[in-house]
Amino acid sequence: MKTPLLVFNENGIYCEAADVYLDPWRPVDKAIITHGHADHSRWGHKQYITHTTNVPIIKHRLGEINVSGKEYRETFTINNVTFSFYPAGHIIGSSQIRVEHKGEVWVFTGDYKIEDDGISVPYEPVKCHTFITECTFGLPAFKWTPQDEVFSDINSWWASNKAEGKTSVLFGYSLGKAQRLLKHLDASIGKIYTHGAIENMTKVIRPMVDFPETTLITRETKKEGLKGNIVLAPPSAHGSTWIRKMVPYETASASGWMTFRGARRRRAIDKGFVLSDHCDWQGLLTAITETGAEKIISTHGYTDIFSRYLRELGYDARTEKTQFEGELAELETKKEIEDSV
User: Which UniProt keywords apply (predicted)?
Assistant: First the structure.
């Protein structure tokens, strides 16, 4: 039996013909990396290959690593296997990985979304025979509102809180979500303050994106100066002693999980904005159709339900277990929080 071009093993997604891994979750000799989130770019590999924009991001997170950058659509060959990166639209610097060998083409998406967020290079469909797709939000219940409407709601919420003399505390992951929020906040309403984890990551990305001005919260920041303004913070800051300085405040979270009211209640959040850096149900189906692929492999998310639906549509669809966790994995590590305060 012919060995598949990509296989899933205990280390990650492996291309035997090239002896290279894609987003491996255990240390390997050579790793091709889709983007900077912790579940996809892990420490310990001897060599990293990623998109040029992602190089400073993963170096910020992982330290001094052996990493080289490639541009979108730039081909590079390892043992007669041709690889190239294509925009994934997930976060800045995110990529899909196209793998071609002996006329066979596979595409590994990593994480992706098809809505243009105004920061990332927009998602680009890539024709292939086999498509490896996440399905973090692979249920029909997930249907995203256009982001312009979401940001209008966020800015209105901030303005309303300001009128009541309250600080607005908005939670979003320090890489990706926080910068997307920052880009679309209406700075005419007031000042934008940031938690250290977000400020540090945004500094890395500022040379690539035109962001509004931010002010880092430090021990010297006065409570009175925060009133009426907005604070961008990682989800892990909620319930910490750090947030006490914001009183009186209103909290909000920007996440695809805010689709469900129960998720907001469990996290003790005052307001939920449905905003995700992953595809919704229709986005996944649209992306799959545009690839022209006949074989679909679903990873991390509602894999069983999503694959069963694809089989009903006539696809050769199956699931594979990975250590990718989608939006759940973007939570900052304890060390990142400690380093930022």
Answer: Exonuclease, Hydrolase, Ligase, Nuclease
Element (H, E) at 181: helix 177-184
In whole angstroms, what is the distance from residue 191 CA to residue 203 CA? Answer: 17
pLDDT value of position 55? 98
How buried is residue 16: exposed, middle or buried, by Cβ count under 10 Å (0-12/13-18/19+)?
middle
* C-alpha–C-alpha distance, residues 142 and 153, integer Å: 19
pLDDT tens readout for residues 8-31: 999 999 999 999 999 999 999 999
Q: Confidence band (pLDDT; 50, 70, 90) for 245?
A: confident
Do 297 and 212 share a domain, yes or no? no
- Do 137 and 281 belong to one domain? yes
- Residue numbers of the domain that contains 188: 147-273
Q: Please give the C-alpha separations between residue 146 and each of 153, 182, 218, in angstroms, as whole numbers.
A: 11, 17, 35
Which residue in 309, 22, 258, 33 sits closest to 154, CA to CA? 258
- Our separate counts of H helices and E strands in the chain read 9, 19
> What is residue 337's predicted lDDT score, i.e. its pLDDT?
37
